[in-house]
Prior knowledge:
This protein has 24 helices and no strands. It is mainly α. It has one domain (65-428). Helix 4 (51-62) crosses helix 16 and helix 11 (168-177) runs parallel beside helix 19 (334-351). It is globular. The two termini are 25 Å apart.
Amino acid sequence: MKILKNFLPLFLFFGIYLGSGIYYNDFYALSPVIIAFGAVAFAITYFKGSINKNIDLFLKGAGNDQILTMCFIFFLSGSFSFITKEIGSVDYLVALILNHITPQILFIAFFVISCLISFALGTSVGTIVTLAPLLPGLSSGNTDALILLSGSLLGGAMFGDNLSIISDTTIAATQTMGVKMIDKFKANGLIAVIAAIITCIFIYLNQPEFTSSIIHKSDKTGIILLPYIAIVVLALCRLHVLVVLTISCLLAITIAFFQDLSFLSISKLALDGMQSTFEISLLSLLIGGLSFLIEKNQGFENVLSLISKSKKPWVAVSSIISMIVFINMAVANNTIALLICGPIARQISERFNLNKIRITSLLDIFSCITQGFIPYGAQVLILLALINQKISFIDLVSKSYYLIILLFVSVIYIVFFMNKNEKRLEKTV
């Protein structure tokens, strides 16, 4: 009952978000920012203490350095995405790969393309919007081919959403957990790459026989891929993510100048990119302030006390994963789920002396898996809409080998790798 009482504002947010999605038959019809504002207003008047005191606590939480860092990362990543799209980086990468493959390796190649594009863009939805229109032509009217290509696209899109350093989910997970992006990237990358390699094998073994005519042109040169290369190289050099994104943005801007884009045009692109992240940035501030209010009213402590009764680290890990899956299913948005779950998971990790880098990686992984499996998620809805509902949701997820394999690889990782130091951790606890 204490947990229910302490988390009532958050449950209110869940309830309205889920209810509005069902009522309007669209989980993105009512902005989560509006709902979050209502939940915050309720929390300020609901929790004990004066309204002025609760407002101060909310502002302190919203102004946390990690929350503010997250917002600036969102702004820069938005600008980066808009400028690189304008200079043709994505189109060039698609053309580069598609024009050098044969129908025999089409399905594997398309999955790899989806992974690369989503990693470059940092968005699963953007990847699906970019590549889904190609599916009817690539499948040449073959339904089995269309299903496998669609499943490969969904899996590949979630690959980058989970792994890219400019992805909303990566930013939210690392900042709320207090983990360096490069450390999470290395831990996450091991699991994701293994799952991707196994996926390629499964795709090859299950691909249908058909012929396809692939024509994709781009009049650009390879130099426009430099901003993406810079992001990866600079991140591996362990530079601060804000420095990485700033340098990469400047590099993209320089290329834009050489393409004869005016200063005003580039400035507008950069601003439009920042504005595209306004909603998620504002939501981060609201959820950050709300989480701090809940924390100061013993909400997190009650959860920790309940989990601590077992004194088993694996119970803590299972609780964190269950929490992110449940919240993601409730809000149908993996970034929002991470913003909510991250602060709680961080405290659980600290209480049980868990490796925060590994926990951050698992949080992001399971949020992306869940997002790909829910029929009312934006990724699934947009993908099915762009191919004119020619396949069913069941067909789509059944051929999303990457998501299925990623789930199994993650479970194996937890059972056989994370638990090998369980006895030592139990003694610590």
